[in-house]
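STRUCTURE:
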């Protein structure tokens, strides 16, 4: 049987101009390593996105990394995709044993702002059962995408995406946060999240992040 081919098209990145791997075609079952380098060394966050080849497919975030922290691969992709942390000005994404349905356009993006560059709620200590509201305001008025991430207190814990929201849209919570967390979405570059009846395992560091729509 003739092996199927897998097409990776590297096009213009989402946020700012970057240097990244060229277009490539490989055989199904081979491994792929995609490289991306920042243009601005001051930028503190980098991302990988996938636009599948299927018609009318949506853009999916695969992985992200903040300067000085390990990269995180989004839930559902962690077994098949691996991302390096930001090393110097570069980040890489590897795919082991590529499948035909991995075909698509892979975008690398960088962002000038990460969770540390926004106005957000100060540190707080609450009792179990209390209600907590996290407030985040974008530092620039043209930001349309806002995110909340959680870094649990446990040793070697991984940063988790809690919610994302586009300006004027609803809040899209990850499954594990849907029951106790509430939000009305992003309004006027502001995204607040309410934790109803906080539990002990809600303890952690919460980061707000923004993304330039360009």
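SEQUENCE:
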């Amino acid at each position: 049987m003739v092996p199927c081919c897998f097409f990776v098209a590297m096009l213009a990145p989402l946020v700012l101009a970057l240097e990244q791997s060229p277009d490539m075609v490989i055989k199904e079952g081979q491994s792929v390593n995609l490289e991306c380098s920042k243009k601005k060394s001051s930028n503190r966050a980098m991302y990988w996105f996938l636009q599948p080849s299927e018609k009318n497919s949506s853009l999916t975030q695969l992985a992200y990394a903040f300067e000085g922290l390990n990269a995180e691969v989004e839930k559902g992709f962690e077994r098949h995709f691996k991302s390096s942390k930001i090393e110097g000005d570069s980040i890489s994404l590897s795919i082991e044993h590529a499948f035909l349905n991995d075909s698509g356009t892979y975008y690398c993006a960088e962002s000038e702002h990460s969770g540390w560059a926004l106005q957000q709620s100060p540190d707080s200590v609450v009792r179990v059962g209390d209600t907590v509201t996290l407030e985040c305001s974008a530092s620039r008025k043209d930001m349309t995408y806002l995110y909340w991430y959680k870094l649990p207190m446990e040793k070697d814990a991984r940063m988790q995406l809690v919610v994302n929201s586009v300006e004027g849209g609803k809040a899209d919570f990850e499954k594990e946060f849907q029951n106790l967390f509430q939000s009305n979405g992003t309004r006027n570059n502001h995204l607040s999240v309410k934790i109803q009846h906080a539990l002990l395992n809600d303890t952690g560091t919460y980061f707000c992040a923004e993304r330039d729509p360009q």
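REMARK: The radius of gyration is 18 Å.
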